[in-house]
Amino acid sequence: MTFEELPDYFLVDLPPEATLTPTVVSEACETLKRNRRRYLLERPSESLLRTLGLVAEKWLDPEYPIRQLALELGEARSGFPRHTIELGLQSLFGGMTPEGLNHLILQDLGHVRRLDHPTSDDAESRSGRKSFVVGPELIAHVTGGLIPNPVITSIVLGFLARSAQFVKCARRTSFLPRLFAHSVYETDPKLGACLEVAEWPGGDASFEEPLFLAADCVTAMGSDETVERLGQQLPKGTRYISYGHRVSFGYVTKAGLEDSSPRVLAEQIVDDIVQWNQNGCLSPHVVYVERGTTPSPDRLAQLLADELERRESLQPRGPISEQAAATITNRRRLYEIRAASSKDTLIWTSKGSTAWTVIFDNEARFQKSCLNRFVYVKSVDRLDDALGGADEVCGQISSVGLCASLHESQKIVERLARWGVTRVCPIGRMQEPSFLWRHDGRLSLGELMMWTDWEL
Amino acid sequence: MGGRSVPRTVKKSNAEVPRQADCKEKMSSTSSLANLACRVEEWIEDLSLSCPPSGVSDADFNDVALELFRRQSESNPALAQLLRFWRVESSALTAWNEIPCVPTAAFKEMDMTTLEAGDRTRVFFSSGTTQQERGRHFHHAQSIALYERSLKQWLRQHCWPAGGREAMTCVSLTPPPSCVPHSSLVHMIEVGAGTASPSELRFCGELGPDDGWRLNEGLLRSQIEAAVEKEGPVCLFGTAFNFVQLLDTLSAWGETWSLPGKSRIMETGGYKGRTRELRKTELYEQMEDRLGIEREWMISEYGMSELSSQAYDGVVGSADPDLDQRVFHFPEWVRVRVVSPETLEEVGVGETGLLQVFDLANIWSALAIQTEDLAVRCPQGFSLKGRASFAEPKGCSLLPEA
Q1: A20 near A11, Cβ under 8 Å?
Q2: In whole angstroms, what is the distance from residue B309 CA to residue B289 CA?
Q3: Which of B103, B343, B398 lies at the smallest CB-CB distance from A368?
Q4: Residues A86-141 pLDDT 10s
Q5: Positive or negative, the Cα torsion across A352, A353, A355, A359?
Q6: Which residues does A329 contact at the CB level (< 8 Å), separation at least 6?
Q7: Chain B residues lying within 8 Å of A325, measured CB to CB
Q8: Per-domain residue ranges for chain B?
Q9: Which chain A residue has the Cα nearest residue B339?
Q10: What are the start-end ranges of the E strands in A52-151?
């Protein structure tokens, strides 16, 4: 199969000469709603989960033509190297099993049959109640980022909510969502008929207006400014679920470092950096390392540089834009100046390219990385120093990758949670949130649903 | 520091700067920074006297650049520190394009100068917010004098190619030098456009409550009205954002000006972090419509406080009306390279990279400057593609996202 051979099921499949118009968007929304009533609204969970599980299984099969297409064309179309897409697909579809999705329903809705008919969990039984949940009629997903996983996850959640869905992708970001939509259509055309994918530049009111008028729920991911602007455009009463930009960091305690093999730890940190080349909310900009043990934080930074160099030969970062490369070069220059005049700053860089950069700094202030494998290692005495240094991004932190001993982890998680961190995971798994992840601290499926309480 | 403590022109005296006739002789023996300055001055003088300019040969440029770099590496402690870090031996270099470029950030983080603290009589700051550390280019009487000679000749060749400066009303939309004594841009306009008669150059900008630059609308109107009455041409100077402010003002007044024939504009790019930006084509279109000046009479200047020379993208009156075809040129004592941000190797013609400027008039600081600007290499110069996203992780809390 070639990309050109994909059938024209979705608006994004239309040939370039076909013109997308606001009327087409309106009509597509009405069709989606109609198809939802016919094919999705009353579909039992069991059947739906089986289909979604089947789609995921296909994507994990190396022989699956659509997966092969994704890997063959992915670098040119999405900018990510093949191995990155491969890892991303594994991480996404590996957890998308009927069991995994059932766990999600149970976690978010308290009962696996909650989406099928009124049910009671223990507490409800004791109080003589049942409840039932209903999702939105039409969800408009407005996607902004380069990474396809959150978009595909949103689509799956929308299917679970029995909603028709219109996915509006930012320019040049529809490649993988489009392939996923085709895989759904191919597996189950009726389900695929409840999904639409289109692409146009963000902020085009002529297309967005009819879409937002038709949708009763809008989800958006993107920069804080974009999601705020979008929220202001929505008609009154439209449910709005937005995810602004977040950043993440790693934290390595003294005891955690003592319990670990430094080289393995460096490999795990690099796993988090290399996946999606840091272009996502979950990858670390900074790794804080406690002082006072061996290896020292600057030595760990050196190991990190060694591992990034090794990884570059195995999983090269790939080309980036001139603008992105220039940003890295400029930033490197600044730290060279600092390193030339202070022992508190050290810098390691790939030779003859911007492939990777490690900056060691004795100062705890959080720094946003310029991404594409550019990471800070900062030494601190204790967690509070790191949190003090990250004060400016308090409330914007998504994940903390933690390397700590078992006995101290709980206290650290409590401290991080009270400070505003919504996800703590082992270093090395920062980019692999499970389907059960409460995105930015909120229920992912539960957030979409409306409850009906039935008092018996 | 503060105020304009430096006289507008510093006359060459035998004690300070050797006479031109001595220069070549001294170059071969015990050349000092002052001798090298003298050599660059010769080129500047030639530029003003000969048309077309006599030219600076590659060999001459190379000799002076390498000698200057060697001198600077000995007498500029900050540069020496960077060279040690980069493991560069200045004596090992054989060509000017091997000279390692000092990033503009070094002017923020270090005292990038050969001048002793007590000799620094003037400083120009790079633009930036109060939260950010600003770059500092230190000067003394000789360096200011060289800077002024350098800027004046080149500016006049581009703004008044046929002469006639005296018959023209010059209006700068920037605040006056007394308000912004550390702005190299305002100093450039003052020196470049100034004449013996100070009334011929009026500054119609002022500082707002946040120290931002804004127009003094009343003063501007009176200046323009007087010029129109005189029917003499007007030359407007300012940053791109100054001109956006002017367009906004005219729009608010509901006015369109039709400035006298041969009126001209020199804009210097730059929005200084202002929220409203116009694409250059859009800005020029609106200036044509609102001010009645044809595009051939509008030119752009490229400069920065870290340099002592400037580039222009055209000569007033004959500038290319197609902005995409315009190319910036520096004077002959300056060479540029456009390097790949990925490999730092020079890119091919037509390719984009980071702009490096080798300015031999930067005698007492560092001659090779790594800018943060993306440029396209052209056969005879460069065109700008914008600035790479960059902010120094100091002072301000968050870096912009890449």
Answers
A1: yes
A2: 32
A3: B398
A4: 999 999 999 999 999 999 999 999 999 999 999 999 999 999 999 999 999 999 99
A5: positive
A6: A354, B341, B342, B344, B354, B388
A7: 340-342
A8: 20-142, 154-332
A9: A326
A10: 129-134, 138-142
Q: What phi, psi does A449 have (nearest 5°)? A: -95, 155
Instruction: Give me the tens of pLDDT residue by residue for chain A, a chain 456 residues long.
Output: 788 888 999 999 988 778 889 999 999 999 999 999 999 999 999 999 999 999 999 999 999 999 999 999 999 998 899 999 999 999 999 999 999 999 999 999 999 999 999 999 999 999 999 999 999 999 999 987 778 999 999 999 999 999 999 999 988 889 999 999 999 999 999 999 999 999 988 778 889 999 999 999 999 988 888 899 999 999 999 999 999 889 999 999 999 999 999 999 999 999 999 999 998 899 999 999 999 999 999 999 999 999 999 999 999 999 999 999 999 999 999 999 999 999 999 999 999 999 999 999 999 999 999 999 999 999 999 999 999 999 999 999 999 999 999 999 999 999 999 999 999 999 999 999 988 999 999 999 999 999 999 999
Q: Residue B283's closest CA among B238, B240, B347?
A: B240
| Contact at CB, A325 and B342, closer than 8 angstroms | yes
- What are the boundaries of each domain within chain A? 3-245, 247-426
Residues of chain B with Cβ-Cβ distance to A316 below 8 Å are none
Q: How far apart are CA A176 and CA A72, in angstroms?
A: 12
Are A318 and A371 spatial neighbours (Cβ–Cβ below 8 Å)?
no
> Which residues are A196's β-sheet partners?
A166
Beta strands A450-455 and A129-134 are antiparallel
CA angle in degrees (0–180, nearest 5) for B375-B377-B382: 65
Q: What sign does the dihedral B329-B333-B334-B337 (CA atoms) show?
A: positive
What's the predicted TM-score (pTM) here? Answer: 0.89
- The structural architecture, per CATH, of the domain A247-426 is 3-Layer(aba) Sandwich (3.40)
Q: Smallest Cβ distance to B85: which of A336, A354, A365? A: A336
CATH 3.30.2350.10 fits B154-332, yes or no: no
SS3 state of residue A358: strand
Radius of gyration, alpha carbons of chain A: 23
Could you give the dihedral angle defined by the CA atoms of residues A67, A69, A75 and A78, in that order, rounded to the nearest 10 degrees?
Answer: -80
Chain B residues 40-99 within an 8 A CB cutoff of chain A: 78, 81-82, 84-86
Q: Which CATH class is domain A3-245?
A: alpha beta
Query: Is residue B175 reached through a cis peptide bond, with omega within 30 degrees of 0 on the bond before it?
Result: no
* Length of chain A, in residues: 456
Kindly state the tokens that stand for A453. Answer: 């309480």
Q: Which residue has the tokens 């229920």?
A: A443
Rounded to the nearest angstrom, the gap between the alpha carbon of residue B180 and the centroid of all alpha carbons in its chain is 16
Put simply, whether A77 touches B (Cβ < 8 Å) is no
What residue type is assigned to position B159 of the chain? C
Chain A residues closer than 8 Å to B374 by CB: 322-323, 326
H/E segment holding residue B21: helix B20-28
Whole-number Å distance between alpha carbons of B229 and B260: 9
Residue in A183, A123, A134 with CA at minimum distance from that of residue A161: A134
Nearest-CA neighbor of A338 among B132, B401, B397, B105?
B105
Residue labelled with tokens 């222009």: B312
Look at chain B and count its residues.
Answer: 402
DSSP class per residue in B221-268: HHHHHHHHHHT--EEEEE-HHHHHHHHHHHHHHT----PPTT-EEEE-
